[in-house]
Amino acid sequence: MKRIVFLDYVRVFACFLVMVVHASENFYGAPGSTDMAGPQSFLANEADRLWVAVYDGFSRMAVPLFMIVSAFLLAPMKEGQTMWQFYRQRCIRILPPFFIFMILYSTLPMLWGQIDGETSIKDLSRILLNFPTLAGHLWFMYPLISLYLFIPIISPWLSKATAKEERFFIGLFLLTTCMPYLNRWCGEVWGQCFWNEYHMLWYFSGYLGYLVLAHYIRVHLTWDRTKRLAIGFVLMVVGAALTIYSFYIQAIPGELHTTPVIEIGWAFCTINCVILTAGTFLMFTCIDRPKAPKLITEMSKLSYGMYLMHIFWLGLWVTVFKQTLALPTVAAIPCIAVSTFASCYVTTKILSLLPGSKWIIGD
């Protein structure tokens, strides 16, 4: 398959933003948290409040961008490809590195005392059920796999759907992205109750909406480059402002907070995050180059392995920049993210030179 140049830029950008998110989480996790924020959050001062909101809030488009890239490339399936051929290709590509890193996260941290033997055995015994204790970032793999499982189901509809029909689906999806706010302000709506979580628009919710949005942009959107850039920029700014503000207004320093409460606007399927993601992706589609720089292409190819391993490197750079050098938050977060990104790139590049490296870091 010929490389789509702007998608290489999106992958690299999204991969870096993932590391910004997790670097930021070290500045609002409550005592007892690991390298990522836990169920409770605590901000020590106003500087942490501001810069966590800015850096982390803006970077919350990372996961949806990855979803859109996958959908842009894979949906609908190629003509003549069977469901089982599609599943086989996806499984071979993502599952071996995924399981290898789940084993590594369940065992290697014992070497530096981050987990004990009991935790390691528990994590290993639950590999088929969920991600390890210290690998919270691997949650992303499960909705991604779910999207892959659904692509053969929705492909026939995507192949025939008109622009108007897809806009109707996207409109219902956008309504579902308002649900977290409706539930907070209005309580249970559209059939929700303690014995039924499947509200009226449940089947239009979640990452499937990003899949249809990606297909709509690729197939039906006819805006020229200037219009995409202008509208994309406005959407990105508005989405970023709302996402940043949603955290900042709630995250009062010196108080213990419930993380899902103050992160309500940081959920990936909220209206503000969709606006932020869609706007940014539209701007990336304006990149019109026959070929990306070699470094960008290499990073894009290695981005899966970089994502899988980055938590191993993150803790080291948190120690360096937050504790040893004690940099102010405004500088520490980007320094941690950049150093983690660079370390992961170098490591995956070295691993890629080994025979059979695709089974470890993907290809």
Report the mean per-residue pLDDT as an integer: 94
Q: Helical percent range? A: 55-70%
Largest sheet: 2 strands, antiparallel
Question: What is the N-to-C order of secondary-structure elements (H for helix, E for strand)?
Answer: HEHHHHHHHHHEHHHHH
The rounded Rg comes to 21 Å
Side by side, the strands of the main sheet go 1-2
Number of helices: 15
Counting helices, strands and paired strands, the structural category is: mainly alpha
Low-confidence stretches: none
Distance between the termini: 13 Å
How would you describe the shape? globular
Beta-strand segment tally: 2
Lay out the secondary structure.
Layout (H helix, E strand, L loop, with lengths): L4 H20 L15 E3 L3 H14 L2 H13 L8 H25 L9 H9 L15 H20 L2 H14 L2 H8 L21 H12 L5 H24 L7 E3 H4 L8 H14 L9 H31 L4 H24 L5 H4 L2
Helix pairs in contact: 1-2, 1-3, 1-13, 1-14, 2-10, 2-14, 3-9, 3-12, 4-5, 4-6, 4-13, 7-9, 10-12, 13-14
Descriptive notes:
Belongs to the acyltransferase 3 family. With 363 residues, this protein is mainly α. The chain is 65% helix and 2% strand. The chain contains 15 helices and 2 strands. A two-stranded antiparallel ribbon has the order 1-2. Helix 1 runs antiparallel to helix 3, helix 4 runs antiparallel to helix 5 and helix 4 runs parallel beside helix 13 (294-324). 40% of the residues are buried.
